[in-house]
Amino acid sequence: MIALFTDFGLHGPYTGQMKAVLHQMAPGIPIIDLFADAPVGNPKASAYLLAAYAAWFPMRTVLLCVVDPGVGGKRPSIFLKADGRWYIGPGNGLFELIQRRARETRSWDIDWKPKHLSASFHGRDLFAPVAAMLARGDPPPGQPRHDGADRRADWPDDLCEIVYVDHYGNAMTGLRAAMLPPGARLTAAGRVLDRARTFSDLPPGAAFWYENSNGLAEIAVNQGRADRDLGLVIGSPVEIVA
Question: Within a 10 A sphere around the Cβ of 59, how many other Cβ atoms?
Fold first, then answer.
């Protein structure tokens, strides 16, 4: 299958145009909409989100990932294979956590050239065709990478920030819950938050953090909205209180 991870939003033509290329070049291969609302123009926050959610896809899945504020600039265009899954997109740090946490990984520079490459839509013109080629089982259309322009060694293993706010107003952090000390509390927006197992363990209106279904520490308000009630947005800092 091909999974889409983008910041294109839920409106407008961009996702549809990429899907049109995929259907034309890789007919019959299922296309999964994972995220269309990844953190806009924010490869760093997106990298932690992608690493948590990509792990649920089976081997040989092709993840087409576009969070690309530097489109048309000097950032490399790459694809990689990590623990049996393919990832295609901009080499701007988006795959840093995927590569860092993988048991086995290889990366390539895309050397395939389309007949037409717009300066502002590499998702449609470059990354989608390469994703289709890999999904079909074609030979990788690139050369092994030999520099670290796509890597971000200074990014932490876990990010003490809000990286996503979902439809319900719950605020995901870039922290893996399994990496936090037992009994840890989180501080966000001036509030100290205890850990709970799930929403119904606390009364309505209570704020807390919990391990979400994908392993991230997530801040929520039972029968409320953490974004509105606590004032949380993508990039809001979070502190760990042991």
Answer: 8
Within a 10 A sphere around the Cβ of 240, how many other Cβ atoms?
A: 16
Same domain for 137 and 176?
no
Structural domain total, the chain: 2
pLDDT tens profile 90-104 = 999 999 999 999 999
User: Are residues 167 and 136 part of one domain?
Assistant: no
Q: With pLDDT > 70 as the criterion, what percentage of the chain qualifies?
A: 100
* Confidence (pLDDT) at 63: 98
Q: 129: number of CA atoms within 13 Å, CB side?
A: 16
Q: What is the pLDDT of residue 242?
A: 78
* Cβ proximity of 4 and 67 under 8 Å: no
Which range marks the domain in which residue 191 is found? 161-241
Adjacent-strand bridge partners of 40: none
CATH number of the domain where residue 125 is located: 3.40.50.10790
Residue 28 lies in a domain: yes
Report the C-alpha gap between 133 and 135 in whole angstroms.
5
